[in-house]
Design a protein that fits this description.
- The complex is a heterodimer.
- By secondary structure, chain A is an alpha+beta fold.
- Chain A has one domain (63-223).
- In chain A, 40% of the residues lie in helices and 25% in strands.
- Chain A is built from 5 helices and 9 strands, in the order H-E-E-E-E-E-E-H-H-E-E-E-H-H.
- In chain A, a hairpin with a 5-residue loop joins strand 3 (89-94) and strand 4 (100-110).
- Chain A starts with 17 loop residues before the first helix and ends with a helix.
- Chain B is an all-alpha fold.
- Chain B has one domain.
- Chain B is 68% helix and 2% strand.
- In chain B, strands 1-2 form a two-stranded antiparallel ribbon.
- In chain B, a hairpin with a 2-residue loop joins strand 1 (152-153) and strand 2 (156-157).
- Classes of the chains: A alpha+beta, B mainly alpha.
Chain lengths: 224, 201
């Protein structure tokens, strides 16, 4: 039988003052801010070094034989040696005997799910792409992301001429040196890569040619 | 010890409590991703549980959730930076889901229902049990999906080139399939345990 005595009357705790609430949140926010700033400062050098290293490795990979490179920035349609951040840049590769190996060019283009970023090696004498690597891509795993490491697709970029423009053809029908064998099941991603390369070439071919004409010594060193 | 063990199996956050479904489905397309996500979550869970338990008498009830979120978010951001600096590949694979640990209801649930009422040691046991249980669940999901969908485990190819991968398994639907089968398995084993108790041999 439940008697009145069994009911415990609910006594509300005294409300803490508004000041106490604000102070708690303020202190929490302040301490959290301190932790965040210090961990940001602590990890930033390593993160930056990682990014730079990833870029270096990519440049060496798309320009075979490269041991060193210069950063060239586009300023008023002209290429200038400059490695200030925040500019549009290409990389001029040199091998261990300082001979010219080609240009490394990056490009981005929206793919099936997100922006695809690619770096490619460009040989301006033969006007051909000689290397290719995907830097960033979130394409569908198992389908679109074949553009990263599908061997048949990568083989397209060992020597792909860029004149009069790169054309995507059905898988297994590549005949011309400017055609790319697409990937079955990754049509949109393959198309993205081709569009990206064409646009990168349209943008950089002229400045690169002009630069090489102004600096004939770059190519000459190879002929000697 | 009970506090530690319950999270691993009997009250497993994924297979029994069905908490934290978003990362469990989204990042378990390979064993290593599942494991990394699980361990990152474990770290955040242990860190915030300890802090919440320590401060449980200082934090006024009215602002507790906000304070918990600030604490959790701080730990998550630290994990985010650390992974980016020392494990850039894993960070790239997990992408936005690292920052989304903040809103993993498993973590907030443990603060609200356990750490805010229990002492440091018990909170630590509870958090590590739950965290490792979560990591175990994600690793299991990831392993099954990687084996079926990519023919490999932890990146090592198992069946050679002739194997035609079952791609749907590493796509989002595969996450639901595998999770469904594992939940089935867990419920079935729980039921059998119950029956066993009722009619002892």
């Amino acid at each position: 039988m439940s008697g009145d005595g069994e009911h415990t009357t609910f006594v509300p705790e005294p409300e803490p003052s508004a000041f106490r609430l604000i102070a708690t949140l303020g202190v929490a926010g302040f301490l959290s801010g301190l932790v965040l700033v210090s961990s940001y400062l602590w990890t930033k050098p390593t993160i930056d070094a990682n990014k730079a290293e990833a870029q270096r490795q990519a440049i060496f990979q798309v320009l075979p034989g490269t041991a060193d490179y210069e950063t060239l920035a586009l300023q008023d349609g002209q290429l200038v040696v400059s490695d200030e951040p925040g500019q549009e840049v290409v990389f001029l590769g040199r091998d261990s005997s300082q001979a010219f190996t080609g240009f490394a060019i990056t490009g981005e283009e929206p793919g099936f799910s997100d922006i695809v970023t690619v770096i490619c090696g460009y040989e301006p004498v033969e006007k051909a792409i000689i290397g290719y690597q995907v830097l960033d891509c979130k394409e569908t795993p198992g389908l679109g992301d074949k553009i990263i490491r599908n061997e048949g697709f990568l083989a397209n970029f060992k020597h792909l001429t860029v004149d009069p423009g790169i054309i995507l053809v059905k898988n297994g029908t590549r005949k011309q040196p400017n055609e790319v064998d697409g990937i079955t099941g990754a049509t949109i991603s393959s198309r993205t890569v081709v569009k990206l390369l064409n646009e990168a070439m349209a943008k950089w071919k002229e400045p690169i040619n002009n630069y090489l004409q102004e600096h004939p010594e770059i190519k000459k060193r190879n002929d000697e | 010890m009970q506090e530690f063990l319950k999270g691993l199996w009997r009250e497993n956050p994924v297979f029994v409590a069905v908490l934290g479904m978003c990362p469990s489905l989204a990042v378990t397309n390979s064993a290593i991703n599942g494991l990394a996500m699980g361990l990152a979550t474990t770290f955040v869970l242990i860190g915030s549980s300890l802090l919440v338990s320590m401060l449980r008498k200082v934090i006024p009830k009215q602002v507790r959730i906000t304070t918990y979120i600030v604490i959790i978010a701080t730990f998550v951001t630290v994990v985010d930076f650390t992974l980016q600096a020392y494990f850039p590949d894993i960070h790239k694979a997990l992408g936005a889901f690292i920052s989304l640990i903040v809103v993993n209801c498993l973590i907030l649930a443990r603060q609200e229902s356990f750490s805010s009422k229990n002492g440091l040691w018990r909170s630590f046991l509870d958090a590590s049990g739950m965290g490792l249980g979560f990591a175990f669940a994600l690793f299991t999901l990831g392993s099954i999906r990687e084996v079926l969908g990519n023919g490999s485990l932890l990146g090592v190819s198992l069946f050679g080139k002739a194997f035609e991968p079952w791609i749907v398994m590493i796509l989002p639907p595969g996450g639901f399939f595998v999770l469904g089968f594992l939940l089935l398995l867990f419920n079935w084993s729980a039921q059998r345990r119950k029956q066993h108790k009722i009619q002892p041999a």
